[in-house]
Amino acid sequence: DTAVSQTPKYLVTQMGNDKSIKCEQNLGHDTMYWYKQDSKKFLKIMFSYNNKELIINETVPNRFSPKSPDKAHLNLHINSLELGDSAVYFCASSHGPGGANVLTFGAGSRLTVL
Amino acid sequence: DAKTTQPPSMDCAEGRAANLPCNHSTISGNEYVYWYRQIHSQGPQYIIHGLKNNETNEMASLIITEDRKSSTLILPHATLRDTAVYYCIVRVQGNTPLVFGKGTRLSVIA
Fold first, then answer.
1. Which residues does chain B have within 8 Å of residue A107's beta carbon, measured at their own beta carbons?
2. B103 pLDDT higher than 70
């Protein structure tokens, strides 16, 4: 059983398109995250949700809109895709936000914008 | 911004102990030291964390100096599958995000 699963694993699309990446966790965690890893391999937090409520929103263009329909899901929708959005996007979850808050990451979704 | 300093790369012979250093000279009293690793093309994986006492689990040991300004992650018997980028992170427990730095690229050599 995959603890944190992301779909799709690979996504190739044209500039200007709108796309979504889905994330589901079966760990019973109440906090979920989106991280972005760019071509230089830096991992940066984008968003965090706790019990479906947004608790962390880093400086991210408003073209990026996370949606959490329930505690087990956190989807990422991106409008008007740009070349600079090409990256690997990682979803993660944790028991949190309090306590040790150890994160479990998904395998990543590689987005390529042409 | 990451609050830690790590060497960019290290090599280790297979079967030997891998000792990965981390400097965190500005660490606050309520900040924990976390270690994660990222094997190529995979998501980051939690390894261990601690506040001031040394910690050990099935994956590794964490040694934190008495002044807490540095720490060392020890993989006691490195295998080829331990080749990865290792990230040392300091953070307050609770609603604070993990901030990843550049990490140390560990290469385990047969």
1. 42-43
2. yes
Running DSSP on this structure, what letter comes out for residue A62? T
CA distances from A24 to A34, A87, B78 (A): 12, 20, 33
Residue-averaged pLDDT of chain B? 94
Residue A61 has pLDDT above 80, yes or no: yes
Look at A4 and B43 and tell me if their CB atoms are within 8 Å.
yes
Local confidence band at A40 (pLDDT 50, 70, 90 cut-offs): confident
| SS3 assignment, position A85 | helix
Burial A82-108 (b: 16+ CB within 10 A, else e): eeebbbbbbbbbbbbbeeebbbbbbbb
